[in-house]
Specification:
The protein is of the alpha/beta class. The protein folds into two domains: 250 residues, TIM Barrel; 26 residues, no CATH class. 30% of the residues lie in helices and 18% in strands. It contains eleven helices and 14 strands. Strand 4, helix 5 and strand 5 form a beta-alpha-beta unit. The chain is globular. It binds iron/sulfur cluster.
Length: 346
């Protein structure tokens, strides 16, 4: 079976209800509003590990009762000069290349459009995107995202990357993908060999729970790492899934074991239909306090919040400084007080 054939996925409420032995009606109600797809690979993980993975994948009626969520929580549409480009920051832009994902995560920020026909990206839209990026000299870094870029066939993905590489001012190309987590068999030596031709190329994966770090995920990351691709991970802090220091610690150690550098731990966005996943910022800060100084710095992500309305990413760090003046007073990771002379010798 090809890694992306119809049999690779469950896409109907009936198929999911049957596989998990649950009532179909709630699934149907949610599916009217939001798309549904679970890879058979991830289904298997749900069956082995239960709730933390179940909640990420299986539609829940809470998605329909969110009264505080925002449809376009990051204000992406207002930073979109052409349909498949989001240009919010000075030197970088997002290129949205696909509306497909191997799994439609229930907490997704782009829940409003992933998996829906109106987000489909055709050649004309991509050509318009390349044109915009080519005409905008300040952009040196492009993040290829979606949906999931690795859901495209390898030839089409190569056409996109080659087109970006042909733009002289684009230095770094990044791919944001959840496929190493949700459909790792899609990552093949052939895919890695293609990607290897376009360095400097970086990949940001997305793992949220240690149970997602499987031998298959490790193999996928090994193919990519051995193609010289630096791998990062963007994790979302999710209530009832990974909102404890012990789980996040285990995830971080597991990631560096498979050669993936934890990059961001995100406070969950305020996307409509995801309120039941959100923690308070204090939860994230207290997790960071248990990580910084206690866990190797290599494994420490930046905890950040993406400001609603397009304000951009704001790093969130526990407070260590207790007094700022000629002497800086602070506590260390154990809570012990220290000071440092905060002046220069003239
Ligand atoms: S893979 Fe990423 S873009 Fe796709 S549904 Fe999951 S979080 Fe959203």
């Amino acid at each position: 079976m090809s890694p992306i054939s119809a049999e690779t996925f469950l896409t109907t409420p009936e198929a999911v209800a049957q596989a998990l032995n649950i009532p179909v009606e709630p699934l149907r109600a949610v599916h009217v509003v939001y798309p549904l797809r679970i890879s058979t690979y991830y289904l298997n993980l749900i069956q082995q590990h239960g709730l933390p993975l179940w909640k990420q994948a299986v539609p829940d009626l809470s998605e329909l009762t969110d009264t505080v969520g925002l449809t376009d929580s990051l204000g992406e549409e207002s930073f979109s000069p052409v349909p498949c480009v989001v240009h919010k920051y000075p030197d970088r832009a997002l290129l949205l290349v696909s509306n497909q994902c191997a799994m439609y995560c229930r907490f997704c920020t782009r829940k409003r459009k992933v998996g829906k026909p109106e987000m489909a990206v055709d050649d004309a839209a991509l050509t318009q995107g390349f044109q915009y990026l080519s005409n905008t000299q300040c952009i040196s870094d492009v993040l290829i995202s979606g949906g999931d870029p690795l859901m495209l066939n390898t030839a089409r993905l190569e056409w996109i990357i080659r087109s970006l590489r042909a733009i002289p001012h684009i230095v770094t190309i990044r791919i944001g993908t959840r496929v190493p987590c949700t459909l790792p068999l899609r990552v093949t030596p052939k895919l890695a060999a293609m990607l290897k031709k376009y360095h400097p190329l970086y990949i940001n994966t997305h793992f949220n729970h240690p149970a997602e770090i499987t031998p298959e995920a490790q193999q996928a990351c090994t193919y990519l790492a051995e193609a010289g691709i630096p791998l990062g991970c963007q994790t979302v802090l999710l209530r009832g899934i990974n909102d404890s220091p012990a789980i996040i610690k285990e995830l971080l150690y597991s990631l560096i074991r498979i050669r993936v550098k934890p990059y961001y731990l995100f406070q969950a966005d305020q996307a409509k239909g995801t309120a039941h996943f959100r923690t308070t910022v204090d939860t994230g800060l207290s997790i960071m306090r248990e990580l910084i100084g206690h866990v190797t710095g290599m494994a420490i992500p930046t905890f950040a919040l993406d400001a609603p309305g397009g304000g951009g990413k704001i790093p969130l760090t526990p407070e260590y400084i207790t007094h700022k003046g000629d002497t800086l007073e602070f506590t260390n990771y154990k809570g012990e007080p220290y000071s440092y002379p905060n002046w220069i010798v003239s």
